[in-house]
Design goal:
heterodimer, A: Immunoglobulin-like, Immunoglobulin-like, 2 domains, 15% helix, disordered N terminus, B: mainly beta, Ferric Hydroxamate Uptake Protein, Chain A, domain 1, Maltoporin, Chain A, 3 domains, 22-stranded antiparallel beta barrel, five-stranded mixed β-sheet, 5 helices
């Protein structure tokens, strides 16, 4: 909503009827190597932390190079304030092929990476509890990185439904009604996945979305509607390369889909990271946006995020009106 | 400071009262239109001394009684010499004849004055609109701001852009005045055209260093644009038809030689022209854009002592988009100004101009998608009253003093939205209020035959007043408490003295040394999200959190003229120190002032700039023009940007060269050419990538650490004029003579970017594929705006 102002920037393009562009070579000094944290602890789930490093913008991007960015020589301790202990390292080499596939889907990476390289992540037997804060300390190459996140109390959606867009007989968006609690400072994130299988096309028989995906604009706070009840809708994230991500169905849900909505509450630090990341992704390539480095909630100059999610789930089946 | 005023008054008084002196005073005007001429020279040949007319064409010169030869000169006009006998105070309104008008009795060759070497002012340039009109015009639209950019020390903010930077100062540090009214956003169409319609403009003067005390409120420059008064003698219609816009101007006397009016309008028709060519299925379908300008002015000469002027400007850009079914947008923005001025002569030596001004800039945005309505608006509104006194006690002194008061209303981005019946809560409408005032006194004082100084002091004040709610925030950005101020309650008041000094030391008849030192305060800040100036840029007042910007500039120059002032040359060096500059914190959004203060999102910093400017100009002859070269360096330092490290400003350019030439082949053809070369702009690019949740993210390198390739471009123009005279029979002699034609017209052909240089406008990085699938492909792309662009404009006058 806030980013509607960006519309004006895109309008400028309309004025530039004569503009042309060409690919150029840019000689940039390679930046400092930094640790990247991607860690989550969801309500009623075990924590998962994946560590990688950044790479030069023009450095190679083949699978071997991607695999080389994973970090497996760190030690991580996790604490909920009363209990603490080292997290367990689990590597893809010790997983069964179905486990590898599930992990690849969850991380959004190619399963070949997990099959061909020994990629490691960190987990623990601790289970996420509502309202609790969790701290991780990462020791890697002589430096210590810390972060704390909270699992805020969940706020369930009042109702959810699917609605076909006018003129599109079977495609549409998903809508929900939210009653924001009276106190200020609630932050939310919306994910969804389709759990039905393709009944057509190249991917026939596969589950449509292997994991939850967050669409553009999925992070919001209650600054403008604190305590109100209102409805809102989302399109479908089309980040995967399945056939309905490139054709006319791109961005839409379809009659017949079974859609699971994961609606999360998040704390301010998580919100800041996700909001910044969204602004950065949207403004990439715009000459009218100022460069934005994303605010991480990890200390000591590391990049990335340690996020607690207070989740609730809703399942809807998309039907014709 | 009080001592200084007393000292100045003492000096003034000491030089009055000498016996056997008389004052020659009056207005200098154009013989054809009756328009007063600004900055024209009145020179007493016997004394080798002179004065210049003020902003209203008034002059006053006090001399011992005697016989004198008075020479009147002004660029574009024939010199006129008149022998006078001065015995008592004399009112003398003089009319001089433009070059190219043939007088029956005599022709006088134009000569060039030596104001550039003999005046105290430095870093000041006057531009002649007629000359600007012969230079190549971008898309056929003559633009005064683009011509200003060709001067040394002035940099364009980008390809085809009217925004300008003066000596390392930001775009908000230029005081742009149209008939004394501040123009807050001087551009149309995201900067590609300026709001100043050349047909309505009489005079343009740019001061980039040694700003005299009469001007204030900005750190870097004053661009003073005077609108034409309107022809006092006859009705006249001028117009032009160009590729993207048409213009029409009508002017004439309401009462001959007593009152006049001018109305000038311009409108683009890109929307009408492009409509048939936009396919219905294209992304541009349903969009429309246009802008228009309207200038109007009325003058009334009440008596010898009193004159009244009423002038106004109104302009708007409008963008609309309608997808036909469920999505529509309307984005209008623009300026409006109105000035009511009253010139009064207390006596031959004391002139006062009093002006009441209204100036406003508004931006708004209305969008609708299905049931969702979204609106956003921002702006600034000023009410201004000022009085400027000119006192001419003797040839050695020219004293100015006055006051200026402005009541500002700032409207930061206000948002309203509703979805169906649900109104979103964006809080109360936010407005900020402030009083700004100034008192000044200055004397242009000839200490000895060789040394002349312009010494001045400006006392400025700014007060942020209520109603206002201050949101205090903690480090996490959460509001911890609020404080509310009542209407008119003072929140913070600033008072600052601003000393100004410039001096000229004459080395010989054709050369001089000059020095300028100024210390300025600026109480308004333009917070810009983007690298380019956009209609969404916000003007923000000085508050308890935002301190006034402070600028200190030292400049020195050597000025020399050759061949009886045919060639003017100068070398100027400057050093500028800027404090309390503002910039948005990283990641700030313009609409973040809801339940917050817009100034909470700012970070404060310093700026440094130094440079050398070379200027070579030829004003006389068939071949005229100038070459300007600037070597400079401009840095910025902000606490919350680039980890507090100093970085080059985005408009830091080591080399900047401009060449502007005009060649008049004969009465019918004039050719113009422009060449510009500038070091590439500095930009910030990402240098590392990483991913979270499978999403590619980047980290940026040091701020402005990458430099784009140099910018260079050449433009050419040719103007063909219809015959200005026709043969008629002279009634007295019966001979055939040449008489001016009423209807004249000309064709201007321009070519922009003659050798089709692809100059970088911006560089962006893009990626395709998926990093985590090993299919990512990254690339850097350079976008260039304008290839070779021919244009043609037809102008007429009757």
């Amino acid at each position: 909503m806030k980013n509607n102002i960006h519309i004006i920037y895109s309008l400028i393009v309309i004025m530039l009827l004569w503009s042309c562009e060409k690919e150029i070579t840019v000689d940039l000094p390679t930046g400092e190597k930094k640790l990247v944290v991607e860690g989550t602890i969801e309500l009623n789930e075990n924590p998962v932390v994946i560590l990688t490093t950044n790479s030069g913008y023009f450095e190679p991007t083949d699978l071997a190079s991607v695999a080389a960015t994973f970090v497996d020589d760190a030690t991580i301790t996790i604490s909920d304030g009363t209990n603490s202990g080292p997290m367990t390292k689990i590597c893809s080499g010790s997983l069964t092929p179905p486990q590898q596939q599930a992990l690849a889907d969850q991380l959004g990476i190619a399963v070949e990476i997990l099959q061909n390289y020994n990629i490691c992540g960190y987990t623990d037997g601790m289970v996420g509890e509502s309202g609790k804060s969790y701290t991780i300390d990462i020791d890697w190459q002589g430096k210590r990185y810390s972060s704390t996140t909270t699992i805020p109390v969940s706020v369930p959606l009042d109702s959810t439904w699917f609605e076909v867009e006018e003129e599109l007989d079977s495609l549409g968006f998903v809508y929900a009604i939210l009653s924001d609690p009276p106190q200020e400072g609630n932050n939310y994130r919306w994910y969804a996945k389709r759990i039905n299988n393709y009944t057509y096309g190249d991917n026939i028989g596969e589950q449509k979305d292997p994991d939850f995906l967050a669409p553009s604009g999925s992070t919001f706070d209650d600054e403008f509607f604190n305590g109100l009840t209102f409805d809102f809708g989302y399109n479908r994230n089309s980040r995967t390369q399945k056939e309905d991500d490139n054709g006319p169905e791109r961005g839409y849900y379809k009659v017949g889909d079974t859609i699971v909505i994961k609606f999360c509450t998040i704390d301010k630090g998580v919100y800041n990271f996700l909001e910044d990341a969204e602004i950065q992704v949207q403004s990439t390539g715009s000459p009218f946006a100022s460069p934005l480095n994303i605010r991480s909630n990890i200390s000591n100059g590391a990049l990335g995020l340690w996020a607690g999610y207070g989740v609730t789930f809703d399942t809807i089946i998309a039907t014709s009106p | 400071m009080n001592k200084l005023i007393i000292f100045l008054l003492f000096i003034s008084l000491s030089v009055i009262g000498n016996a056997q002196k008389s004052t020659l005073s009056g207005y200098l005007k154009d013989s054809q239109t009756g328009e007063v001429l600004i900055g024209a020279n009145i020179y007493i040949e016997e004394l080798e001394k002179g004065v210049a007319t003020n902003l209203y064409g008034f002059y006053s010169i006090t001399l011992p009684n005697g016989d004198y030869t008075v020479k009147m000169s002004y660029l574009g006009y024939q010199d006129q010499r008149v022998k006078i006998k001065l015995e008592k105070d004399t009112k003398w309104n003089i009319e001089i004849v433009p070059v190219g008008i043939v007088m029956k009795e005599f022709t006088v060759q134009a000569e060039q004055g030596n104001e550039n070497t003999q005046g105290t002012q430095m870093g000041k340039v006057d531009m002649e609109v007629e000359q600007i009109k012969t230079l190549p015009a971008f898309m056929g639209e003559v633009d005064v701001l683009k011509t200003i950019q060709l001067l040394p020390g002035v940099q364009s903010s980008g390809e085809g852009n009217t925004g300008f930077y003066v000596r390392g100062g930001g775009p908000d540090q230029n005081l742009i005045l149209l008939d004394e009214a501040v123009v807050y956003n001087a551009s149309h169409l995201f900067g590609f055209f300026s709001v100043f319609n050349a047909d309505a403009v009489k005079n343009i003067s740019l001061t980039k260093g040694g700003m005299p005390a009469q001007y204030g409120g900005r750190l870097s420059s004053v661009l003073d644009i005077s609108m034409k008064d309107g022809n006092y003698k006859e009705y006249k219609v001028d117009g032009g038809i160009g590729l993207i816009a048409s213009r029409a101007t009508i002017q004439g006397p309401i009462q001959k030689d007593k009152s006049s009016f001018i109305i000038s309008g311009r409108r683009t028709y890109i929307d009408i022209l492009t409509k048939p060519f936009i396919k219905e299925e294209s992304d541009f379908s349903g969009s429309a854009y246009y802008f228009y300008d309207l200038n109007a002015k009325m003058n009334y000469i009440i008596s010898d002592k009193d004159k009244l002027f009423l002038s106004g400007y109104f302009g708007k850009d409008v963008f609309t988009f309608n997808s036909g079914d469920d999505f529509s947008l309307k984005i209008p923005w623009g300026n409006s100004t109105a000035s009511l001025r009253w010139n009064h002569l207390f006596n031959d030596k004391l002139f006062v101009n009093t002006t009441a001004i209204y100036s406003a800039y508004n931006f708004s945005f209305q969008g609708q998608a299905d049931e969702f309505n979204f609106g956003l608006y921002s702006g600034i509104r000023d009410w201004n009253l000022k009085a400027d006194f000119n006192y001419y006690p003797s040839l050695k002194h020219n004293i100015k003093f006055g006051f200026n008061y402005t009541y500002h209303t700032f409207i930061p981005t206000n948002v309203e939205a509703q979805s169906g019946d649900t109104e979103f809560d964006f809080g109360d409408e936010v407005k900020l209020f402030a009083n700004e005032g100034a008192l000044y006194v200055q004397d242009d004082w000839e200490l000895t035959d060789l040394l002349k100084v312009n010494i001045g002091l400006r006392l400025s004040t700014f007060q942020h007043i209520g109603p206002f709610t201050r949101y205090n925030k903690d480090n996490q950005g959460n509001v911890v408490d609020t404080r509310t101020y009542k209407r008119g309650e003072s929140i913070k008041t600033y008072v600052n003295p601003e000393p100004r000094l410039s001096a000229r030391y004459t080395l010989n008849e054709s050369s001089s040394l000059k020095l300028g030192i100024t210390h300025n305060y600026q109480y308004m800040h333009l917070a810009s999200i983007a690298a380019n100036s956009l209609p969404t840029d916000l003007w923000i007042p000085t508050t308890d959190i935002v301190k006034p910007q402070i600028g200190t500039q030292i400049s020195a120059g050597y000025f020399k003229n050759f061949k009886e002032n045919t060639y003017e040359t100068s070398v100027e060096v400057y050093y500028k120190d800027l404090r309390n500059l503002v910039e948005y914190k990283e990641g700030a959004q313009p609409s973040d002032n809801i339940n917050d203060n817009v100034d909470n999102q700012l970070t404060f910093g310093k700026g440094y700039s130094y440079g050398v400017e070379l200027f070579f100009k030829k004003s006389l002859g068939d071949f005229t023009g100038w070459v300007g070269y600037t070597w400079s360096r401009t840095d910025r330092e902000f606490e919350a940007v680039n980890n507090g490290n100093r970085f080059p400003a985005k408009f830091d350019r080591r080399h900047d060269l401009s060449v502007a030439l005009t060649y008049q082949l004969n009465d019918r053809w004039t050719f113009g050419g422009v060449f510009v070369y500038a070091t590439g702009n500095s930009i910030t690019l990402p240098n590392t990538k990483y991913f979270v949740e499978g999403q590619l993210l980047v980290e940026y390198a040091e701020r402005n650490s990458y430099r784009m390739i140099p910018f260079h471009r050449a433009d050419l123009s040719a103007t063909w004029y219809s015959k200005k005279t026709k043969k008629v029979k002279d009634i007295e002699t019966g001979k055939m003579i040449e008489a001016p034609k009423r209807f004249t017209h000309n064709w201007n052909f321009s070519i922009y970017n003659v050798y089709n240089r692809a100059n970088p406008y911006f560089i962006y990085f893009d990626s395709e594929g998926d990093f985590t699938q090993g299919t990512l492909d990254v690339g850097a792309f350079q976008v260039s705006l304008f290839p070779i662009l021919p244009s043609v404009t037809w102008n007429f006058s009757f």
